Amino acid sequence: MKYLHEFRDKGLASSLAAELEQLVDGPVRFMEVCGTHTMAVFRHGLRSILPEDLYLISGPGCPVCVTSAGYIDAFINVALIPRVTIATFGDMVRVPGTSGSLAHAGARGARIEVVYSPMDALDLADQRPKDLVVFPAIGFETTAPGVAATILEARRRKRENFTVFSAHKVMPPALDALMSNQRLKIQGLLCPGHVSTIIGAKAYKPLAEQYNLSCVIAGFEPIDILQALILLARQAVESRAEVENAYPRAVSWEGNDRAQGLISKVFEPVDAEWRGMGIIPGSGLALRPEFSEFDALERLDIKIPKAPEPKGCRCGEILIGRCLPPDCSLFAKGCTPLEPIGPCMVSTEGTCAAYYRYGRSFSS
Amino acid sequence: MCLAIPMRVIKIKESADDMSAPQVAIVDTGGIQKEIRLDVVNRLPNIGDYVLVHAGFAIYALDEQEAEINLRLLRDVAEGKLGKR
Ligand code: SF4
Q1: Cα of A133 to ligand 1 centre, how many Å?
Q2: ipTM summary value
Q3: Which of A84, A305, A277 lies closest to A179, judged by CA?
Q4: Residue closest to A161 by CA, chosen among A134, A137, A132
Q5: Can you give the CATH number for the domain in which A95 is found?
Q6: Residue range of the domain that includes A284
Q7: What's the pTM?
Q8: In this predicted model, what pLDDT tens digit does every residue of A23-64 receive, in sequence order?
Q9: Quick check: is A17 in a domain?
Q10: Residue A19 in 3-state DSSP?
């Protein structure tokens, strides 16, 4: 397919890898923020062709993984309310809460439906007029505009039994919180491609300036990632810290302003809790009061409970680059994709799942 | 979760009976056709354009020219035509 084949060209990939090898002549640490990048790096076997001195650390860019345990418990509590249907992305179903997951709630009679799009959740509300459909909305700026558009469509259809339980998060405040942590010692960020499609390359300028941090936006094909790493490595060699865009076919400087408009029409920023990072000011999205009839938190008077992290699980530290999956004593022992203990093992783009599937031989 | 896949637009559907209805496109991905929404996309795509699709919504109409320039630059780098900046 166009836009894919060209960016998977093996010959080009190995020339770029050679170029990268030349550029890296001492240890450099970059963080790939996005879980989809983590997965792509493994799936395309890039780890084996990257220079030995280049350390790629996974960041907090897996929406399921950063959703705190309290939210997972709240989703499950809602699922157990009679005449509620939960319509959710597949990744959420098996995430363990304090006692069981949505899948377990389903086994106890809760109505759980997996949907591919928030629009499918709205269609489900059309089909089940006697149920209140609750869509647990997790995701970053990539996902939030579609959810906003779905809420507007629900209003157009006068759907009274459709609600969104927003646990949306936005990336820049979290990256800021992460970078203000001096212990991380990261020279550059491999910035998330599709979050950037929406927010634009300009969103990283403050980070680059304030933390003297190289920020390069990357797509998800092997060539895209290699190119971005070359740009990061060059910045390191030349002691520059700038925003560069290695994914111009899908990302502009300004981003998608129509999508940005949808987000700010329907949502407003709130403080939000991130697994591993605690509460970060302005890093979440709540429905504006004008849309409270679609806000599950309002309609069902939901409080987010305090919940402990799964015992022994180090997801929180993994999400901020402080340790790697093999450092967790449960990794591949008590915790596997079939019997996950933490969210980083459940999500297809969780770092633990990626290591389990592709890289169990890697040590820290 | 933030995965978005490029798909080719083969048809734009407009609702004849409801002018306020949002636009929908039919896209093709490896021979399979799907309906996607155009509420979010940065510009209305033309037939034949590729859009990035995420969770049922087109989030961006891909820029073909950029893709070509990008690839050309990369090939130059790979062939050693461009030195370090
Ligand atoms: S291996 Fe399992 S328990 Fe350990 S950090 Fe990863 S998800 Fe948590």
Answers
A1: 31
A2: 0.91
A3: A277
A4: A132
A5: 3.40.50.11740
A6: 68-170+255-299
A7: 0.93
A8: 998 999 999 999 889 889 988 889 889 999 999 999 998 999
A9: no
A10: helix
Out of A94, A313, A317, A333, give the residue to mutate to test ligand 1, the one with the largest number of ligand atoms within 8 Å of its CB: A313
Predicted confidence band at A364 (pLDDT cuts at 50, 70, 90)? very low
Q: Could you tell me if residue A87 is inside a domain? A: yes
Cα A352 to middle of ligand 1, angstroms: 6
**CA A143/CA B55 separation, integer angstroms:** 7
**CA geometry: angle at A179 spanning A193 and A31, to 5°?**
45
pLDDT of residue B64: 79
Chain B touched by A83 (CB under 8 Å): no
Letter for the amino acid at B67?
A: A
* Residue A156: inside a domain: yes
Q: How many domains does chain A have?
A: 1
Q: Evaluate whether residue A131 is within a structural domain.
A: yes
| C-alpha to C-alpha distance for A320 and A185, rounded to whole angstroms | 11
The conformation of residue A201, written as its DSSP 8-state character, comes to G
What are the structure tokens assigned to A121, written together? 């959740």
For residue A330 and ligand 1, the question of a CB distance below 6 A is answered with yes
